[in-house]
Write a sequence for this structure.
């Protein structure tokens, strides 16, 4: 089993977070390479001189500002390397206010440090050991499918509440609603789009469909 690489340039920061959540990362040395202290500098050097082997790991998790002045270039190297190796990449930072997930050539997550160092991390690592993990557990916890549905439902309700328009541009809907996340929970609903516009009734139908999904999930989980 390949390991997960966790890159953290400030050891004390990690210690403060895990002290608060009582997560013992040392219990996971068989599946996690915790790149702190000298190990961090070794990883940073290999990334800078392009000798780092991405294929060695199953996924990479890094503090977004772990490389100081070289931050921008190293971040691009991490993105390109993970894309080429087809492995997930997670960036966490206290400066990230909204969680973000995208899957194209590879899976990319941006998340707040408090969310990352929460009990979700322990849950994810335990699931990884058992071979039934999903990267979205880091964001949404054990009942990640249900939580995604609930979050999107809440977004739609708020969106409809503050917008009285009878139709919306497709880009506007995509910017305000994380509908793309519904694909990750095996939820199927095709919004009818005409001339790059989505009528209000279509959004309402989607909302009702998600609500039905949530009801069924609560019954059967």
């Amino acid at each position: 089993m390949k390991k997960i690489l966790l890159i953290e340039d400030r050891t004390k920061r990690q210690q403060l977070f895990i002290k608060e959540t009582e997560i013992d990362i040392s219990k996971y040395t068989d599946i996690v390479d915790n790149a702190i202290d000298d190990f961090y500098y070794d990883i940073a050097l290999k990334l800078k001189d392009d000798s780092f082997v991405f294929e060695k790991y199953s996924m990479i998790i890094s503090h977004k500002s772990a490389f100081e002045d070289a931050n921008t270039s190293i971040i691009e190297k991490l993105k390109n390397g993970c894309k080429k190796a087809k492995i997930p990449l997670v960036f966490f930072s206290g400066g990230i206010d909204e969680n973000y997930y995208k899957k194209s050539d590879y899976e990319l997550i941006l998340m707040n440090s408090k969310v990352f160092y929460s009990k979700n991390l322990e849950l994810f690592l335990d699931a990884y050991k058992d071979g039934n993990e999903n990267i979205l557990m880091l964001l949404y916890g054990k009942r990640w499918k249900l939580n995604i549905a609930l979050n999107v439902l809440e977004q739609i309700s708020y969106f409809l509440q503050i917008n009285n328009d009878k139709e919306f541009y497709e880009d506007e809907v995509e910017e305000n609603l994380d509908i793309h996340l519904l694909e990750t929970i095996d939820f199927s609903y095709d919004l009818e789009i005409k001339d790059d516009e989505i009528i209000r009734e279509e959004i309402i139908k989607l909302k009702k469909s998600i609500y039905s999904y949530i009801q069924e999930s609560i019954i059967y989980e």
